[in-house]
Amino acid sequence: MSVLVPFLPYDPCETPMSFAARLASFHLGARVVPFLHDIGIRPEALVGCEFDAVEQLAGVTGVDSAALHRNSAHRIRKRRFELRGHEFTAEFFASPYTVFCPACLRDDDALGGDPALFRKGRLLWTPRPVRTCPMHGLELVRRKKVSWDDAFHQMALRVPERAEALDELVDRA
Length: 173
Known about the structure:
By secondary structure, the chain is an alpha+beta fold. It has one domain. The chain has helices at 16-28, 32-38, 43-47, 51-61, 65-70, 102-109, 115-118, 155-158, 163-172, and strands at residues 74-77, 80-83, 86-89, 98-100, 141-143. Helix 1 (16-28) crosses helix 2 and helix 6 (102-109) packs antiparallel against helix 9. The longest helix has 13 residues, at 16-28. The protein is globular. 32% of the residues are buried.
């Protein structure tokens, strides 16, 4: 299998879906769903962190599959998931909400360029009991699903705020 070039590094704090969304922007300037179809991954399979979908993403990108699996909540049966050796119910996770720390996204934006390339959905935001960002001590923002593709948690789309508007979110958190 060929590896996508140029290479976009995977951040060990992000979810596989976040990585796929950044890759979609980087390689196609597009949303994640068409990109996933292009590389042979069913979008719903990556949302559910199905083993084969994560393996396909690793193979196409050249990223170590163990790193991607480490940040994957794998469905083990109906409404039950395994994450890092622990079993959780579906209710443990924040989905369908998109959860984020506005200060973390502001830090991502400070890297410059298109937020779709730099904004990462962090694994630590996905458990429902986590209410504050351990990096900034701020309350996490939860956004309800409005559109069908909000389930893919594309941070640049789900959090359109930039610059001063993002600063206002930080101030309110």
